[in-house]
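Q: Entry one of two.
A:
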Amino acid sequence: MPAYEVKRSSSKLAIGSANFGMDYGATNPQGQLSNQSIQTILKKAFDSNITTIDTAAAYGNSEEALGKAIKADQDFQIITKLAPSQMFTEKSFDIGRISNRFQASLRQLNHSHIDGLLIHNCNDLFSDQGDQLYALLLNLKQQGLTSKIGVSIYEAEDIQRVNEHFDIDIIQAPINIADQRLILDGNLSALTKKGIEVHCRSAFLQGILLSPIERIPTYFTPILPQIKKLHQFCKNNQISLLEATLGFLKQSADIDKIIIGVNGSEQLQDCIAAESNDLSLDFSSLHINESSYLDPRNWTLS
């Protein structure tokens, strides 16, 4: 039996692929990764039972890069996102074009089926064509082109709006040691009770949470005291920033996948080692209330 057909216990970690297709990350000096680097990361991931990859039509040529880099014996579960309205002009944003763009995604990924398909921009579900967009998701699922459907959200209000109107399988949301809003307000546990998978993104806040204090962009100066508190917390508990950020997320039984972005297989190995460390610590004091610094859409970086 080929190795990729063997039932394996998958890791909670998932590979984020934004930097496979474009220059991504507030603290990423390397920029877009080469095909060789992507292949090395994917080999390390698959060999380590990390079986989920997160991508999107809006991530530059990430889908195409994955289609070229994934080997035939690497049975990854791929989650991608439909092209958001921002990728179209106002006149060209219609269901037919969005459906065609998804078919292009499948061709670029070199897959006839994917594990999950998400709405990239939650607001698109509440536009004039929102009902048609949801119907498209259901139709693609019915056709067997995707096993699960869902949405990427930013705010607790998004979760509540979606749950009131749509039946979905996956919600992707920003959660990290500094941004604990969805845990503290009970939204995360509510999703679990409904049987909805939670995929956590922004685990490192685009690298801000792992950066030395002197390398943090000046935009974040107002919250430096809280970031320094995180550094001191790690020192007091004799753990690394990486162990703290991943340990916090791993501790939550309500998080199914932790999406991480890495620049190479060595960084991935560091994440694997850090995530394997079972921590039992109270991280609640490290929550930052200033939402403008937790949402990259608000950032002004020079």
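Q: Entry two of two.
A:
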Amino acid sequence: MTDVSIAAGARPVSAAGSSAGEVRDFVALLKPRVMTLVVFSGAAGLLSAPGEIHPLLGAVAVLCIAIGAGAAGAINMWYDRDIDAIMARTRGRPIPLGRVPAAEALSFGVILALFSVALMALAVNWVAAALLAGATLFYVFVYTIWLKRRTPQNIVIGGAAGAFPPMIGWACVTGDVGIESILLFAVIFLWTPPHFWALALYRQGDYAKAGVPMLPVVAGVRETKKQIIIYSALLLPLAVAPWPLGIAGPIYGAASVVLGLLFLAGSVAVWFDETDKSARRLFGFSILYLFALFGVLALDAPASPIGLVGFIG
């Protein structure tokens, strides 16, 4: 979009209105809806980890996770500005609309990324900072730049970036990466493909137009639906595992079974549905699933300061 076309479609605004609009645009670059889920899973990892962390440092750690996630989102929007302008789902973002110059978006993302890692290292510990840096670099260079436009496995491998937050939260408390935090990482890693493939099923026209090789575009709808069921089936026992391993209590165990069965049932419904309704429903439920799963984990972990175990016992 040219400066002339932007100006032609613009309405006169006050300086205050323009300033408020700019703030909203830069907030939008951070992908706040995605950030919410990242922050929540990171906080759950922090709360379920054994050991203690000062509440102020815990808040700083969660803030660093949020800023790091937002920074990665801003850099992603900078790199994907060409295909974002094509896809209906993303063409309303600030860069395609010409509301934020691409160079400013990149600078904004890089500065936030460096700040979040530096603050995490100085205020919390270097292990958490290294994981935060790794998650940001993985999302930008491995997923966004390397995989997204080259392979239908983009979201399978690239989804690892979104699985880092609970591991980062765990490291904030313990200062290391244990098998427990790797398990939490694996839960989100397996959750990511069916979550995004459900979206891709009813947005496949968008992805095809933009030249992004999402699974439905490359392998077809039937194969995508089969893969959704496979990943959902694998996710169910893995999500239950924190209970027998002692990371969480029986309340989490029961909740994870119920949530996993509902997720699997939704995946099977997608298989039999020739419309987009079940795919849209599964995408929405997948977000609720992860919020609920990690919410119960934070409440029912024996180490959690807000745990249900001590309250009920």
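A: Comment on entry two: The radius of gyration is 20 Å. Residues 28-304 form a domain with the Farnesyl Diphosphate Synthase fold (CATH 1.10.600).
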